[in-house]
Amino acid sequence: MSMRILIVEDEPKTAAYIKKGLTEHAFVVDVASNGIEGLHLATSGNYDLILLDVMLPGADGWTVIQGIRSRRQTPVFFLSARDEVSDRVKGLELGADDYLIKPFAFSELLARIQTILRRGSMKVDPLVRVADLEVDLVRRRVGRAGVRIDLTAKEYALLDYFVRHVGEVVSRTLIAEHVWDMNFDSDTNVVDVAVRRLRAKVDDPFPDKLIHTIRGVGYLFESRAETERERTMSEP
Fold first, then answer.
1. Could you read off the pLDDT of 140-187 as tens digits, one per residue?
2. pTM of the full structure
3. DSSP character at residue 130
4. Would you call 133 exposed, middle or buried from its count of C-beta atoms within 10 A (0-12, 13-18, 19+)?
5. For 173, how many CA atoms within 13 A lie in the half-sphere containing its CB?
6. Using CA atoms, how far apart are residues 230 and 127, in angstroms rounded to an integer?
């Protein structure tokens, strides 16, 4: 699954330059042109890294990172023309993972991004468990109740997205954007077809179903058996 990066930058040429370079290196990139939109996307989306300018319309970068840190621990990388030591110190004190002064060489930006992402990946538990399903995010192996399950690349990407959003209702639009990097067309049933194929492998042979259709909205990935057991245990 491709790494997703959010660029919060109000200078169109700068944003386009960075997006082009990152896209060429297989990143999926979104752009916000002001602080308010950037904060909304950063706290509602699923990003691996946020590139954040300081001087932004709507809300400056200092305000945006404070809003992000109150809800998320997504790595934040400041890109700014403000080159005072006090600015760099302030950015780091507010929780930024790095601070690069404009103008910069793309090669340096890319190297620093890769360092941050490698650092972050070492903190992630490589084995995710949902009921009797196990997903090894490093080896990209899937098993359930001790049975190994072979998935295609897209089936694995879809399952990867589901296990990262356990207990959350995710829309078909979000699935299409994150798994296929495409805008969802309501006349296309690509998401539903992919979900049916994934269900046939990870759900149909097992009694506890994990993929649930939420009519008119999308899908929910969770163990209903575990949810019911937790509810029963919490009752007096």
1. 889 999 999 999 988 998 998 898 888 888 888 888 877 776 655 555
2. 0.54
3. E
4. buried
5. 5
6. 22
| Residues constituting the chain | 236
**Count of CB atoms situated within 10 Å of the CB of 78:** 26
User: What per-residue confidence (pLDDT) applies to 120?
Assistant: 63
Using alpha carbons only, give the angle 180, 188, 27 rounded to the nearest 5 degrees.
15
CB proximity list for 230: less than 8 A, separation 6 or greater: none
Is residue 135 within 8 A of residue 149, CB to CB? The reply is: no
Structure token digits, residue 49: 């890294």
Tokens for 175, please give them: 């699935």
- Rounding to the nearest 10 degrees, give the CA dihedral for residues 178, 181, 183, 187: -90
Distances from the Cα of 9 to the Cα of 53, 55, 122, 146, 203, angstroms? 6, 9, 28, 47, 43
- Bridge partners for 149 per DSSP: 142
What tokens appear for 109 in the block? Answer: 């930006």
What would the 3-class secondary structure string for 181-218 be?
Answer: CCCCCCCCCHHHHHHHHHHHHHCCCCCCCCEEEECCCE
